[in-house]
Amino acid sequence: MFGATIVDSIVFSVACVFALIGALGVISFKNPVHSALGLVLCLFSIAVLFIEQGADFLAAVQIIVYAGAIVVLFLFVIMLLGVDKEESVKDETLKFQLPLAILAVAVLIGLFIAVGIGYWVSGANSLTGNFKPGVPGILELARAIFTTYLVPFEATAALLVIAVVGAVMLVKREGMAKRQSEEITVGEQN
Amino acid sequence: MSVPTSWFLVLSFALFSIGLLGVLVRKNVLIVLMSIELMLNAANLSFVSFSSRLKDIGGISAVFFVLVVAAAEVVVGLAIVVSIYRKRLGSSIDDLKELQG
Amino acid sequence: MFPEVIHVTYLIPIAPLVAAVLLVLFGKKLGDPASGYVATFSVLLSFILSAAVVGSLASVSAGHRFFEQSIFTFFNYGYPPVGVAFLLDPLSAVMILFVSGVSTLICWYSVGYMKNDPQFHKFFIYLTLFVASMLTLVLGANLLVTFIGWEGVGLCSYLLISFWFERPAAASAGKKAMIVNRVGDAGFLLAIFLTYSVGKTLDYEHLFVFSKTFSHGVLIAIVLLAFVGAIGKSAQLPLVGWLPDAMEGPTPVSALIHAATMVTAGVYLMVRLSPLLASVPVVAHIIAIVGIITAAFGALSGSAQNDIKKVLAYSTVSQLGFMFIAVGTGAYVAAIFLMVAHSFYKACLFLSAGSVIHAMDEEQDIKKMGGLRKFLPITTAAFFIGWMAIGGIFPLSGFWAKRSILLHAYEVSFYLWLATLLTALLTAYYIGREFCLVFLGQPRWGNKSKKHLSPHEPGLNMKIPTVTLAVFAVFGGLLQLNLGNWLNPALKPLVIASSAGSNTDLVLSIADAIIAAIGAYVAFALWKSRSFNKTLEPAFLANAFYYDYYVDKLIARSATYFAKLVDNVVETKTISYIVKGATALAAYSGDAFRRLTTGYIRRSVLLFLGGLILLMAYAGFKGGF
Question: How does pLDDT run across C103-146, given as a tens digit for each residue?
Fold first, then answer.
């Protein structure tokens, strides 16, 4: 590619191809488990691309959190609910959903191309903090997160707590509290 | 000189469109959620590309936060899916049409 | 230059109006007969005031008898200002005198006639209102005031015809009168509009000056439209149907409104507009032709009627036709003379008929009467005098009036004169027939009717007015001695004086008298002993040439048909469709939009995407892509 080193180009191409394959796999496989695996492939490819951009720390976080936690969670639920039955894409209950969806996405792509050709966004360099690709920028990242973006950081912490509590409340079964209280009274009697 | 940023953006947009298509077309709830994750990842890629080009750490921090929010969202989303699945056997997203007008 | 008393002119129509208001407020309390006397007194007051102002008018020399009194102005747009103003000149002087005089007598008569009627005071409210309107009409100084009075008498006519409105025949007769009158009123209104838009004035005095500048076509239009109004008010063909039906009202109403006063308003209007009429001879010819046709129609129909009042109604139609013949031939003085004389003898005839009706316990069919001369001698005498007068027997008033008209008709056209003469013969005939059937011969009411009838003369309240009118019918001819001189200055330009030469006049007058006598004798001979005759009373005459039937068929039915058509096509198909279509459209589009909220998440996402695309496109276009 124009002026890029050979290694960069090869890495980019390969990662790009695998990302696309993975993405297409996510939406195409009938079995949800296969879709999850496709998602993992995609995520790995994106991590590679992160490294190529120089965001090493982020690539590591991506693999650990996304591929390691989120996709595992997905597989968990798939297995738990047993929704790995096959489902047909052609069997459409909503009228015209498929053609309309393809049309809408095509239009969106067209719009993007039109906008993209016309403009190129640029902004001031190093506005938030300096970042040198290739140099591990953990220091800069930490400085940014714990000073400039402190409030969002605290907010996301709170968000995680809320999410966990909410998830527990949502899946709680009825009767668990009653059984627990019964055990206590029985225990006391003894 | 590395790969031009525009290629990354094109890839990002391609992944986004694929994810969007998945949300619109697939009927299985879990696959829809996975498509949403795909879209989020595409956005992350775009953030990082710009951050690399503009030599700005802001993009990377944004990805950081997007990651956290995506995780929280997946947790809650899956909890909802589980509790709905308990009520009825269908796993099709089309079964959830209580808001029908 | 006038004596001060002339300034009470405006009180002449006000007096009965005040009485009407008083009767509205206190009439029920006053009751029978006090409210009647209040009404009679107010009309008498009008008469006295009229006499006083006319006297003061007469005290001035002939060329200056002209007094205008303005009450208030409506608008001041052009010159002169248009408002309520009264004009006292020789013509209106004659009119107010005989209108208030005859009205007083008839009002007095009504006190006796309407005795024991449950709505006694209401009758007198309407009656005084009518007199006030009629006086306004004749005293008007401009077309506007005349029109106000015109509408007022139309309204009171309607109220009084349908006085006994519980009777469906009376109610529908009132409606018919109002509606047919309205057609005429439309013509009158158009004449007023045209006059004002062309001449910028409605004042009679100024009008006659300005009219010299009008184009010929405009003059024809104005006079013709005013004549349409006169046709409606005076029951000429084709707007004649309402007058025979108007006999459903009480007899004093028939006497006052439909014989003596209201129906003469049309003639009065044409005489008022005589200066304009004189310059459009073609319209004058039309008027004369309408007059003679109507006169013949009325006379022929009247000769086969069985109702005592319908005969007199058709007779009124016929006599009004005579008046219009006079107007059409330029004999305005003769027309007014006939108007006055006619009011005397026709009112006398009607009041006598009213006495007969009361005596026969509300029976009105003359075939069921007969031999009443033994029981009602005074009424018989009054009716006889009325017959002689209307027939034109020498030397009663009717003779002199008809003679004037015949003389002028002879000058215009021999055939017109002949037709008028024959109609006069018929007039003497058919009233004579009525007289014989009612008063002569053997009583036909004894055995057949279930009521125990003992006919007797009415009380003084009813007798005195009848007799008074009979006296006037006899001696009214004396009027004509000075009427011409009195009226001529008011009718500019000067009316055509009878100039055929005194020899021809004498021959014609004698012919007139002889013909009248022949008509009366024929009636007497044919009807003194028999009560019906098929050939003399053919069905088509008894039904007045089926005129009402044809009007109903042609006009009323077609109007109804058209209304139904409009209802069906326009209302049901078009307007309802449009309205229902609008609601259906709203419902349909609402339903269509409702379907968007399917509840399907994927559908919502698609719509979301759609909105997003639109926003991006908008931003892109705004930015200029």
Answer: 999 998 888 888 888 888 889 999 999 999 999 999 988 888 99
Task: Name residue C590's amino acid.
Answer: G
Residue A130, classed as helix, strand or coil, is strand
Residue-by-residue DSSP string for C412-427: H-HHHHHHHHHHHHHH
Q: Is C597 on the interface with B (CB under 8 A)?
A: yes
Cα-trace Rg, chain C = 31
ipTM value, please give it: 0.89
Interface probe with A: pick from C603, C607, C608, most Cβ of A within 10 Å: C603
Q: C253, exposed or middle or buried, with CB in 10 Å at 0-12, 13-18, 19+?
A: buried
C606 touching B (Cβ < 8 Å): yes
In this prediction, residue B19 carries a pLDDT of: 94
pLDDT (tens digit per residue) in C341-382: 898 889 989 988 988 888 887 777 877 787 788 888 888 888
The arithmetic mean of pLDDT across residues C205-212, rounded, is 76
State the residue range of the domain holding A190. Answer: 138-190
Phi, psi of C103, rounded to the nearest 5 degrees: -60, -40
Q: How far apart are CA C507 and CA A17, in angstroms?
A: 136
Distances (CA, A) of C537 to A145, B53, C263, C319: 124, 122, 27, 21
Helix (H) or strand (E) segment spanning residue C374: none
Longest Cα pair distance anywhere in chain A, in angstroms?
A: 82
> Side-chain half-sphere of C127: how many Cα atoms within 13 Å?
38
Structure tokens at C232: 């409606």
pLDDT in tens, C23-59: 888 888 877 778 888 899 999 999 999 998 888 887 8
The beta strands (E) that lie in C351-425 are given as none
In chain B, which residues have their Cβ closer than 8 Å to the Cβ of A51? none
* A80-106: average pLDDT: 71
> CATH: 3.40.50.1820, 3.40.190.10, 1.10.287.3510, 1.10.287.70. Which one for B5-99?
1.10.287.3510
> Can the peptide bond before residue C118 be classed as cis, meaning omega within 30 degrees of 0?
no
CA–chain centroid gap for C97, Å, is: 18
Cα–Cα dist C490/B28, whole Å: 108
Q: Which segments of C249-380 are extended strands (E)?
A: none
The helices-and-strands tally (H runs, E runs) of chain A is: 8, 0
Query: What 3 state SS string does C433-484 have?
Result: HHHHHHHCCCCCCCCCCCCCCCCCCCCHHHHHHHHHHHHHHHHHHHHHHHHH
Residue C201 pLDDT: 77
Q: CB distance A66–B67 less than 8 Å?
A: yes
Distance from CA of B101 to the nearest CA of A (A): 15
Question: Which residues have C-beta within 8 Å of that of residue C580, sequence separation ≥ 6?
Answer: none
Q: Mapped to the 3 state alphabet, what secondary structure does C135-181 carry? A: HHHHHECEHHHHHHHHHHHHHHHHHHHCCCCCCHHHHHHHHHHHHHH
Contacts for C262 with CB less than 8 Å, ≥ 6 apart = C130, C134, C153, C154, C157, C233, C256
Which pair of tokens denotes residue C322? 């005579």
CATH of the domain at A25: 1.20.120.1200
Structure letter (DSSP) for residue C9: G
CB contact under 8 A, C606 and A108: no
Q: Does residue A105 form part of some domain?
A: no
- Is A113 part of any domain? no
Contact C81, C75 (CB under 8 A): yes
Helix A6-28 / helix B5-25 crossing angle, nearest 10 deg: 10
- A99 located within any domain: no
Contact B79, A167 (CB under 8 A): yes
Inter-chain touch B96–C602, beta carbons under 8 Å? no
